[in-house]
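User: Fold both of these, please.

Assistant: Here is the first one.
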Amino acid sequence: MSQVVLITGANRGIGKGFVTYYLARPNTTVIAAVRDVLSEQAKQLHTLSRGNGSRLIIVFLDANSATSAAQAAAEIQIKHRIDHIDVVIANAGVCNSWGPVLEVDESDMYSHFEVNTMGPLRLFQPMAPLLQKARIPKFVYISTQLASIGGIGQTPTLTVAYGISKAAGNYLVRKIHAENEHLIALLFDPGLVQTDMGDRAAEFLGLDAAPVTVKEAVCGIAEQIDTAEKSTTSGEFFSYNGERVAW
């Protein structure tokens, strides 16, 4: 049976890295969920190398929408005849508010929760029936070290809305782990990655560039997804390099 992997935020950065990685594997169906299926970034996904027997499906999914994930789930089943999903990677995220607690705007808090917390919830609920039909279903949340409450103070970043909304996302995925006996729920910090978001953070920290390549982050996480088990790694918070991250 072909492995089926769904990735949100798939048109660029880490999301595109996951599409590239899984599509290169044999007998893999990659569902790339993007906000604009007609964009040049989305069209370029069709040029990626494919393993023997692998195929790419591109669907519309907007993490800001309360209904698009359910619509995507219906399209996947009806139009593309997908009857199960093995791995869902909730990668779509936003970080565009910078400043200390005293300066954070309430509207920025809401917009970050909309994507970083509600987005994964809206994704999991309609995809759960498809995951339940997989032999070893896995739901993966791309989090961040900045969501670590125990790590506050270790990194001088001013990403209040981002960190809080991702910490709430961590709770959600931990709860998914606890409530679903046969589903593996995983949380990963990809590190400071060479993406638009990562490079902005690196500039703030006075670095010339983010230290982790997209390939390093994706390969490190994908290898852990492959070997993840319910009794050992499910519901736990890990870095792309396999190190545990403090809650």
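And the second sequence with its predicted structure:
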Amino acid sequence: MSELVILVERIIKAFKNFGCFFFESSELQRVRDVLVKAEVEKLVEVRPVDEKYPYIMAVIASRRGLEQECVSRVDSLLVKGSISQDEYKRYRKELIEQCIISLEKERVKEIVKILEDYLARVKQTQ
């Protein structure tokens, strides 16, 4: 198997199990190439895990746009009358956080699906 196939399989397995992918900074360019070719670069963020360990990197599902969408959803619950004003005041933060977690999980599933499709295309061309 080619290195590309092995790397894509590692990324898929990590996202399925943990919702993210950790790797060494020496693999950064190869990982970025995979993300661009698979067309998931807008759905993920590549960042160092910790300042103490600059050689360990992570690919995580991007939270961009999720918070605003969740705020809108929670506000619409109040407008529709699904929750009372008291419940809204009391649980607003928790509802938004639950919504973000839920949408993050959906984004991870979307990333895995796209990567699996990309893996199938790569295997087909070999």
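The longest strand covers residues 53-61.
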